[in-house]
Specification:
Length: 195
Amino acid sequence: MSNTPMLKTERLILRRFEEKDVQALFDILRDEEVNTFLPWFPCASLQQAQQELRHKYQQYYERPSGYRYAVCLQQDNVPIGYVHVGDDDSHDLGYGLRKEFWHKGITTEAAKAVMAQLKKDGCAYITATHDVQNPHSGDVMKKLGMTYRYSYEEQWQPKDRLVTFRLYQLNFDGSEWTYQKYWQQSSVHFVEPNL
């Protein structure tokens, strides 16, 4: 797989986070509402955002494969969110967006572009999970063509709270195979009807 190639959509530029993006990254990561259903706590300072930029992005970009995108509007190329894909066998899709840009289809547009790149680069499937208390995230997964597979409980760190997650998956070859790792790791797992 390639290493975070720049992508363009109708409204967006998807690119690597750069040193100049520290303030924009801070604006994304410090919002409590945006971070409610994410595992980490909101960013407390510009210095912490700088550390996040180094550890979550710049070091990651040095790896042979990695998809960690800054989501930017074409008009100013300033990050307003992110789309990540895990580089482990989950190929887990994650995303976040500043709340003033919610409900405009931006996350769906960005994630579709990243998924098209993944497929082009030979990735076989993608998964995503969402907290059952955050159904809007599940709506994005459905819009991306992903289908619900199962639910499971996890004691989420570092927030240390019990969360029930729903796993969605899309296999690019159209097969019905399901990623089983979270099912096997969790002692509480089940399939919810009518999802």
